[in-house]
Amino acid sequence: xxxxxxxxxxxxxxxxxxxxxxxxxxxxxxxxxxxxxxxxxxxxxxxxxxxxxxxxxxxxxxxxxxxxxxxxxxxxxxxxxxxxxxxxxxxxxxxxxxxxxxxxxxxxxxxxxxxxxxxxxxxxxxxxxxxxxxxxxxxxxxxxxxxxxxxxxxxxxxxxxxxxxxxxxxxxxxxxxxxxxxxxxxx
Amino acid sequence: xxxxxxxxxxxxxxxxxxxxxxxxxxxxxxxxxxxxxxxxxxxxxxxxxxxxxxxxxxxxxxxxxxxxxxxxxxxxxxxxxxxxxxxxxxxxxxxxxxxxxxxxxxxxxxxxxxxxxxxxxxxxxxxxxxxxxxxxxxxxxxxxxxxxxxxxxxxxxxxxxxxxxxxxxxxxxxxxxxxxxxxxxxxxxxxxxxxxxxxxxxxxxxxxxxxxxxxxxxxxxxxxxxxxxxxxxxxxxxxxxxxxxxxxxxxxxxxxxxxxxxxxxxxxxxxxxxxxxxxxxxxxxxxxxxxxxxxxxxxxxxxxxxxxxxxxxxxxxxxxxxxxxxxxxxxxxxxxxxxxxxxxxxxxxxxxxxxxxxxxxxxxxxxxxxxxxxxxxxxxxxxxxxxxxxxxxxxxxxxxxxxxxxxxxxxxxxxxxxxxxxxxxxxxxxxxxxxxxxxxxxxxxxxxxxxxxxxxxxxxxxxxxxxxxxxxxxxxxxxxxxxxxxxxxxxxxxxxxxxxxxxxxxxxxxxxxxxxxxxxxxxxxxxxxxxxxxxxxxxxxxxxxxxxxxxxxxxxxxxxxxxxxxxxxxxxxxxxxxxxxxxxxxxxxxxxxxxxxxxxxxxxxxxxxxxxxxxxxxxxxxxxxxxxxxxxxxxxxxxxxxxxxxxx
Amino acid sequence: xxxxxxxxxxxxxxxxxxxxxxxxxxxxxxxxxxxxxxxxxxxxxxxxxxxxxxxxxxxxxxxxxxxxxxxxxxxxxxxxxxxxxxxxxxxxxxxxxxxxxxxxxxxxxxxxxxxxxxxxxxxxxxxxxxxxxxxxxxxxxxxxxxxxxx
Lengths: 187, 648, 150
Description:
Radius of gyration of chain C: 23 Å
Number of helices of chain A: 5
Largest sheet of chain A: 5 strands, mixed
Helix content of chain C: 25-40%
Largest sheet of chain C: 5 strands, mixed, barrel
GO molecular function (chain B): heme binding; heme transmembrane transporter activity
Membrane topology (chain B): Multi-pass membrane protein
Strand order of the largest sheet of chain C: 2-4-5-7-6
Mean pLDDT of chain C: 75
Low-confidence stretches of chain A: 1-12, 38-44
CATH architecture of the largest domain in chain C: Beta Barrel
Order of helices and strands of chain C: HEHEEEEEEH
Structural class of chain C: alpha+beta
Structural class of chain A: alpha/beta
Oligomer: heterotrimer
Organism (chain B): Novosphingobium endophyticum
Number of helices of chain C: 3
Subcellular location (chain B): Cell inner membrane
Protein name (chain B): Cytochrome c-type biogenesis protein CycK
Number of domains of chain C: 2
């Protein structure tokens, strides 16, 4: 290049030119620690191993029984699914719940802050795996179960004891895990 | 069918990127020189294929092809067309495809038009661009295929969330993306130059338009994002030092530094290694920002809205590209020949000062953003906010602005303060007068005080480079610089004025009550229910009156959406030339009184007007640079033609 | 003023390094003093922060503790975590999700009389878990992140 001025090549800088790389390495190390640190982010329910708190929920749909905590202690393990028609992830997990219901798992629903019409439309569109659906209109039962969001799913054993809490939607890869927990619960 | 076409185009583009990398790298060796010829055409075709894939994605979104999983998840047949189309990039896969498309197209344009650089540097640059692209293609094809089919086809899509149907939301993220990806071109140029060690003015001129364009998009994106947060959150603030905001600010700071250092390199052939490093750093900051936002590593409170896996993928790409580039830099920078020398008091000296200050600010923002991670690693939960960022930033912004007033007046190479001192008398007097006025007024805290007086002085000083010039013949680039610097002053004035003079009033009032905020009288006429397409709201009827002017109605709302159920407060803004009235409606108390939160914010709009001026200055400079580059290219081609014809 | 030509690169480098390292040290010092720590009620009772220090307090709003004061815009309530209770005062627009029994993060400082003065209340914002497919970081979510990390 004609514009280049020939100047003497010097090794200026020395260690300083490694500084950016060193800082970057420190950054990568830092975020790796952050990413790899065992996630205590999933809040494990303190209710696991404890009996379901007592509640009686009125029917959410006229043609379907509501949910009573005593219904859960009938000797068989149950899934209790906390959901709502306005919750997008609940739609994502609908096929998995349908598959579980098809496999013969009794699934009880707690619909949180919903209306009959919206709920009916949701079930029509996304399938209806529920035996009973209780209407938790103020979210109190949801809170008493230690759930802070929808969807959440509980595995309850035949004595009405909470054995497992699944936070967030059930994805296809979670189905075996859920079945495992149900099997454990039936023992 | 279209989806398969898109996927095929994407695979082909990825394959061509690999070919571009291999042929570019081999083309640099004596044996592979024969391959060098195909690199440019391959880069162009690669860009076009990526564009094809992106167009296919837009098409499947536009016709709502629900057999495509991404469409089913993110779109809905009832959406207005513009939101269907915007939905194509309003999700992870689509935005990544947009990223590689812009990157591929930019590489294609570089390959097509850039003829100033030595061919070897071009080969290395295009190989570098391909190397970066390949990572993102792999990310798309392996971990986030946008064209994945869904079986059985759902009857309806999932994405009719009305909250997300917002034009600002549709176009704000891609604006920032264009900025990020523009910096990837600068990155590739830096790599190319490092490989061949050919760093000089020609290199700087080739790189500059890309840096400028990226910087314009970043500036506009940040300004728009800030205004969005201001009116949408209803908290009265316009910048929250939140990680998501910092993620866009950091590339901007690096790009601003790069923009100035590349000017030194272009004009004076100095700051060679430093410019190269900034080229690497600017794109690093884009990727770091994307990583921090995507991985959710900084928002552990909200563990569910993020995806550590995808974050890890970006981290791997980050480690490879940035780690690789910085290693190359460390190995090569020492052997990049030193540029021209200059005295401390000179245009170069001022620009170096600007660069060091910007780098320091960048470091402070990065450090503050990452500190919660450091603290968490040591077992403490902390958050870092304005009490850290504001004074620490000001510590470096203030000296930088002082130099900003002087720098453009200095000559290249060597100058004396005495020569330019005379011209700065008026700005200095303005500063002094402003300081006196504010002191007499009293009650203004230190940072806004400094901001206000500096803004006044700077506004004048920024126009000085136009003196003694014939305005008609002043190059567009100089106009651009003046306008951008003036914009800095304007924006600074807005920020300081907002902080110094804002009047806030929090009251509970009955219908019929009148309250006062600054020069405004606000009367609550009543609160009425209103309904929209997917929400109901309580709307306050506020009759507001500015001094003696006629009363105007403003109507802040407290809105309830039902799918999903969510409450938002819709603030009401009333803009006057000298500020904005900002009203938020709160809840109703047991005694029937309504909560109102009112602000009078003098000159607050100048913040974003200044931002737009800065971006517009960039546009002027870009037009000027590209025009003069084109002229130079045409002139050179003519000489070449003439030589050729003479040779015959 | 002109530097010895021979050493220009080194001098510039040295100046830049000094400034940047200085900035780093300053930042480290400022962060130690300005970062706002997160407390739960039992921690803040056991080891209260300095009175003017900005901190965040997170816990549950105790049932039956919420009172509105006469001015209509100031509320007082108690945040508890099962082990300890902290009285809190706040003036401002109350977030819609803020109710008794819900979780809350209060930003502010501990007053000298043992009452926490909140400048800002963050109620748990979104109870809808978001699946991976919908996780694109849109500005709407950014808003949520803003809300949750402040």
